[in-house]
Amino acid sequence: MSKKEVATFAAGCFWGVEHIFRKHFKDIEARVGYIGGTSENPTYRQVCSKTTGHAEACKIEFDPTKVSYATLVEFFYKTHDPTTLNKQGNDTGNQYRSAIFYYSPEQKEIAEQVTKQVQEKLDSSKPGSLYSGSKIVTEIVEASEWYDAEDYHQDFNDTFTVTSPNLNFAEKAWTAWFNSFENEVVATALIAFIMHEVVYFGRCVPFWIADLIPFFRKYKIQANKSNTVAEHWQCLKSVLFAHFCVELPLIFSFHPVATMFGLEITTVPFPQWQKMTYQVALFFLFEDTFHYWFHRLLHYGPFYKYIHKQHHEYSAPFGLTAEYAHPIEVIILGAGTIGGPLLWVSITHDLHLITVFIWISLRLFQTIDAHSGYDFPWSLRHFIPFWAGAEHHDYHHMAFVNCFSTSFRWWDYLMGTDLKYRAYREKKEAELKNSGKAKVKAN
Predict the structure, then answer these.
(1) Lowest CB count within 10 Å: 47, 227, 288, 293, which one?
(2) Least-confidence region, from 134-143, 203-212, 256-265, 410-419
C-alpha cells in the first residue's frame, strides 16, 4: 500500500476549491483551513479581517499511484484565475490569493514546472482569449503550519443545510441564497432591494391602517389636515420612480465598492449581536450628523428651490413621503445612510452585510415614523428624551424651518435651530393646559 502525500492549494473561497477537487478526484481526502500567515489558531472571522496573513486553502491527501502531484497542480490552475492578485471573482483580500504550498523540494520543482508551462500557454494564446498575455501571480511557497477551519466549513457546499448545527436558520438561508446565484453582485443587489421594498412599504402599512380608524385620530399631530387619495397616488408614483430608477442602480454598485473596502458578504455565522448593536449605534450617530448639516444646506437658496422643495410639497407628511424627494436629494442624503458603514469598514475591515441590512431597516423604520404624522403614547420620544420622532420632524414640514436632524435632537439644540420649535411647543402646551382649566370651570 503506497504512502499518501499532501498537497495544499489556495484559489479563492475554500468552499468552492474543496468542492471542485472532491467532485473531480474521487480518491482524495480534502479539508479546508488556513495557512501562510502569522497568527496562531486563527478563526474564520479573523482571517476575513485580512490581518492574519493566512490564505483560505484546501489541504488534499492523495495516493500518488492513483493521481500525480503534477495532475493536481494542473487541475488547480484550471479551477481559478491565477492572474489576479488577492482576488477571485467577487472575493477580494489576501486571504483569497492564489498559492501553492509545497511540502518537499520535489513538489516545489513540479509546481514551478507546471506553472511555467501554463504561463507559456498564456503567452502563446490568441489575443482576446481568456487570460491571454496575462502574467501568473500564483505564489509558490513552502508550507507553514496548517490550521483546520471550523467544522461547519468542512465540505460546506454539499452539507451545510443538513450537518451544520452551529448555523441557525437565517445563516443557512443566507448561504443558500448566495449559492443559488452565479453572480454575487446580482445576488447582493436583489436581496438588498427586496429587503428595502418590504421594510419600506411594510412599515407604512400600520399608519395607513391608523388613517382608516377614527380612534387613532387623536394621535394625529396635524389633525386638521388630511391628504387626498390623489396626493397619496402622486407620492407613490414618485417614490417608486426613485426606488427603481435612482436607488436600484446605486444598490447594484454597492457590492463592488463595499467589497473593495472589505465588507463581508457571504460569511457565516453572522457577527455576535453585541458587535452589531454598537456598530448600528455608530451608524445612527454618523447619519444624524451627516443629515443635519446637509439638510441645512438643502434649505439654502437655490438648493431649496431646485432640489429640496419637492420634499416639502407635503406640509402634513405621511409615512410614504419619507423618500418622496428629488433624485439629487435621494443621492445626497442617502450617502449619509450608507456612508457610515463604508467609512467604518474601510477603517476596521470588520463589518458584515447583515449588519448593514439591520441598520438600513432600522433607519427606514425611523424615517417613516418621523414622517408618519402620528405621535403615539408608545412612540420612542416618550421613552428616549433625546429621540426626535414624528412630533419633532412634523414641525419642520409644517413650518419649513428648524428641526433639521433625523434621529436625535442634540444638533438642533446645540446649533439653536430648534428655538422656534420649542416656542411653538410651549405655546401648544400652554393652550392645552388652559383648555383643561376651562373645562374644569365649565363643569
Answers:
(1) 293
(2) 256-265
| Model confidence at 126: pLDDT above 80 | no
Cell representation of residue 213: 380608524
Mean pLDDT of 212-232: 93
Domain ranges of the chain: 5-165, 178-438
- Exposure pattern of 13-45 as b/e (b: 16+ CB <10 Å)? bbbbbbbbbbeebeebebbbbbbbbeeeebebb
Do 236 and 329 touch, CB atoms closer than 8 A? no
Tell me the one-letter amino acid at 399.
Answer: A
- Report phi then psi at 346, rounded to 5: -70, -25
CA distance 195 to 190: 8
Banded model confidence at residue 428, pLDDT cuts 50, 70, 90: confident
For the cut 50, the answer to whether the pLDDT of residue 440 exceeds it is no
- Give the mean model confidence (pLDDT) for residues 292-306: 97
The CATH number that domain 5-165 falls under is 3.30.1060.10
Q: Across residues 324-339, what is the average pLDDT? A: 97
Q: Which three cell numbers stand for residue 227?
A: 391628504
Are 88 and 44 in contact by the 8 Å Cβ rule? The answer is no
* Mean pLDDT taken over the chain: 91
Strand partners, 100: 9, 140
The pTM of the full predicted model, rounded to 2 decimals, is 0.73
Contact criterion met (CB below 8 Å) for 145 and 53? no
Please report the pLDDT score of residue 165 as a whole number: 56
Residues with Cβ within 8 Å of residue 29, at least 6 apart in sequence = 60, 61, 62
CA torsion angle for 291, 292, 297, 303 (degrees, to 10)? Answer: 50
Give the integer Cα–Cα distance in Å for 288 and 410.
10
Alpha helices in 92-183 (DSSP H): 105-124, 156-163, 169-179
Length of the chain: 443
DSSP bridge partners of 92: 87
13: annotated active-site residue: yes
Which listed residue (13, 58, 204, 403) is catalytic?
A: 13
Rounded Cα gap, residues 325 and 171, in angstroms: 35
375 backbone dihedrals φ, ψ, rounded to 5°: -125, 90
Chain position carrying cell 445563516: 171
